[in-house]
Design a protein that fits this description.
With 256 residues, this protein is α/β, with parallel strands linked by helices. The chain folds into two domains: 45-115, no CATH class; 116-234, Lambda Exonuclease, Chain A (Alpha-Beta Complex), CATH 3.90.320.10. It is built from eleven helices and nine strands. The chain has helices at 6-9, 18-26, 28-37, 46-59, 61-67, 79-91, 100-115, 117-124, 162-171, 174-187, 215-238, and strands spanning 68-70, 96-98, 126-129, 133-135, 138-140, 144-146, 150-157, 194-201, 208-212. A five-stranded mixed beta sheet has the order 3-6-7-8-9. Strand 4 and strand 5 (138-140) form a beta hairpin. Helix 2 packs across helix 3 (28-37) and helix 10 crosses helix 11. The protein is globular, with a radius of gyration of 20 Å.
Length: 256
Amino acid sequence: MFYICNMDYHKDVERISKSGLDLINKSPLHYYDRYYNRLQEEKKTPALLMGSAIHTKVLEPDEYGKIYAVAPEVDRRTKAGKADWDAFVNDHPEHEILTQEQDALIANIHDAVYKHEQASVLLKRLISVEQVFTHEDKKCKPDGITMQDIMIDLKTTEDASPRVFGRSAMKYRYDVQAAWYMDILREKGHTIEGFVFIAVEKSPPYAVACYVIEDEDVEIGRQKYQENYNTWKECKESGKWPGFGLTKLQLPNYGK
């Protein structure tokens, strides 16, 4: 198995990831702009910071305090509060800074996941966490792999119910993710028995659900990614990265 470090993962434009496939699916131009025009790391937004912190707390809880520092509760609208905040940030140059409110939310999500019977069992059996895997010009970074060769992926969501999360899975192409990840590892000789999404709500009551993706849905995802992957290879070979062309206007079917 060939690995690359996480820092180099997003800078590696010779291989394509699932997020890259999603951009190709939108248009090759969107992919080109993200990965060739803006090679530098994108600024970490509050949403990205929270997403990373939640994943660390749930998947690698022992690493949480090494990466994140929780600032004192201050009013940064005041001169004194801003000075206290800046002093704390300066005292923790190696840490990502979280507010106490953010830390409390992350703790609630962590506790909810580990109180869920099936999710807890899966997480306690992880043997690989956020490891980067590559095969030829493909790459992926699964959230985790269990000792039973089950891939897991942690998703925070507004609504973890089957109907609503199913719509999210369709919108964000989780079928493509499952097929892409499983195929890369299988191409390298790994035995992958299945793929489970752990969905946890970001607000009370922090409901948790575990969703197994069926083989037929994985096959649909495989067909989707193959089309995107072929388009990406063609664009790389031709040097042409088109946007949108002339096509029929697609109007929503309101009321139908």
